Each structure stands twice: as C-alpha cells, then as structure tokens.
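chain below, 413 aa
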Amino acid sequence: MADIHYDDLETRSADAREADLMSRLRALLAHARANAPGHAQRLADVDPDDVTDRAALARLPVLRKSELPDAQAERPPFAGLAAVKPGAGLRRIFASPGPIYDAEGDGPDYWRTARALWATGIRRGDIVQNCFAYHFTPAGVMFECGAEAIGAAVVPAGVGNTEQQARAVADIRPRAYVGTPDFLKAILEKADALDLSSGSLRLAHVSGGPLFAELKAFYAARDIEVMQSYGTADLGLIAYETAAHDGLVLDENVIVEIVRPGTGDPVPDGEVGEVVVTTFSRAYPLIRFATGDLSTIAPGHSATGHTAPLLRGWMGRADQTTKVKGMFVHPRQVAEIVSRHPGTRRARLTVTAADGVDAMSLAVERESDGDGAAEAIASTLQAVTKLRGTVTIVAPGSLPNDGKVIDDRRQNP
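prediction:
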C-alpha cells in the first residue's frame, strides 16, 4: 500500500522525534503547573526548563492509575489534574470502573486513534462498524473520532445486539469492523446462522482483549485482515500494529517509559516492566502515568518503515501486591530492598504456603554472596516488610524477564 504512513512523523529519525518530544514536554509541564492545581502541587519542585532528557523525566513523580479513585474522590472530579473547564476546552466526561473519571478535550481525534485505524488500512470513504461501547466509557467515541479524522463513515453500533449487528453488516456493508477481538466472531457466526451476507468486511481493528491465535486463524480463513492496538481509557492510543505484524508501534504523541514495578525507575530496553505514559493533552495532562500494565520495548523497528520504537504489547499486570500472614507486601518494597544493597540487580519474592503457613523466599541477582550479602539482605527484607523470609543469591540474568517481582504460588492467597 503506497500510502502506508499516516504522516511524515512516522518516518522521522529517532533524534528528531526525541528532540520534539522533549521540547513539547517542557511546554506541557509549564502549562500543567500553571493551570491544574493538582499538577502544581505534584510538580512544585520541578523547573520545566530542566527537563531536557529522559533521565530528567525519570526524576518526576509517577502518577499511578490505582491512586486515581481516592484522589478524585478527595478532589472531584479529576483530582485537580484538569487544566481546563467544561465549555472552555473540556468536551466530554467518561466514567470507568473504580470509579475513575476521564476527561476529553476539544479538537479533532483527541484520543489519536486515526493513526492506528490508518495502519489497519481504513481510508476516506470506507464504512466502519464501531462495536466499542458508547455508554459512559470512552472507547466508542475514541475510535469514532479517529474514523472521522480519516474521513470514514461510522456505524455507531456499540456492544451487544448480535442479530442487529449482523443485519447491519448485511444491509450497510461496512468494509471495517472496530471492537473487541472476540465480538466480531460472534457477529459473523450470527450472520451465518441467519444466512446473511458478511462478505463486505475485509478489515478489523481490535483492542480491549487478547487476540488469540485461534481467532486470528478464524478471521484469516474469511480473508479479514486484523490488526490491534493498545491503549487505556485515560490515555487513548499508546501503540498500534502495522501490516508487518512485528510489534506495536508507539504513537507519535506519547512518551512511553518502561519502569521497574513499584518504582519510577526506567529499565533497559528489552527488560519487562510497567508501562508509564505521558500524553500531551492540554485539557487533561497525564504526566508519568503508571498504567499498571507490563510490557517491554522490542529491538529494531517495523518492517513497514515506521521508525518509532516497538512495544511488545500487554504482558500482564504490574500490581502484584499480595498479603502474607495478614500483612500486605508490595512490589515497591522489593525495589526498596534492592536499592539498599549496591551490587544487587534484580530480585523476585516467591510466596508459598505449607500446612496453611505462609513463607517468603527472595531470590537476588548478585555476582556473589561475599561479605554475608544474603544474611544482610534477609535482615533488610524483615525490616521493610515486617516479615521473615529466606534469601538466595542467584547469578545475574538468571531470573525470568517477565516483569514479575512478587510470585505468589499459593492456591488461595
């Protein structure tokens, strides 16, 4: 496809992209401090002009998604993080489980999904059956705005009503489906059962759930090209798949960091950690927003010529907090133990139970157990968690690269 790239941003050099993102970041920090009281408080000690690179960005506080329900309840509706008011730059307000309230600002394609839909092959003049929810949650609106930005017509189908969905496909003949990975299969099977035509569907863009191999095979057998994207209700698009199917390309209008779970400390490319995202919304700036999702930056770039880094996709949840002997143990506590012992690279806390009694074992990557390191770390483990546990020194690089900091192996923790 000759017009595979949405715009020139997708093929710029890494240096040009990074310079642009850092320049925009400094302007965003100044705007957020001046216009959003929550950010003014969080960034009180930050001089935006000093944030010139990712090392400086990593020193800014992390805003955790898990904190939002309490913070918004204390200062409704947006915890003081919105920089505009309704009618003056704020267009819609959504609600997600938690509850968490999400703000949408003015402007076309606010959630930036057009880039993902374009990569799927959707073009001006296409008809898109949008089967994401429109009720309270933003997904339906997110992808409708993206399709509108391209110039495609949208069937605002929403979720459920499988028979009506199948009849709409037969009557309206959309070229593309947008929705969760599995719902399209239900629509197609309903069309088959009712002897309705569904052959107009040639493209599908999916998100919000796993795209299993059997689903891919099902759609391939029907000659439907399927691509997926990763995003959240708070942030919009984060990364999207291209025709090369070689990873998810980072959106051009976000800064993505991968950090060690429980901290704000970036990990090397290739190591699994928590996805932390900064967006450039002037209406609702989210700066170093910790999604609670695990992923990693993959090596290389897409074969399609997109030059942005590749994300492997969703790889699990970063919040591995568990309860041991009635006490909560958090990933950040494991990170604190590591930070107190120079030479320690990574650690993994395993929780087991025998005869109803909980036990903890901490595996620590170090060159050796010189100077009684295991004993010293065990003492720190008890001091930080208030619980006893054993410590084992293991070779650097021997722990699994899966982002897991706490491995709870009990059947019913």
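The domain at 322-408 is CATH 3.30.300.30 (GMP Synthetase; Chain A, domain 3). The chain is about 25% helix and 25% strand.
thats it, cya
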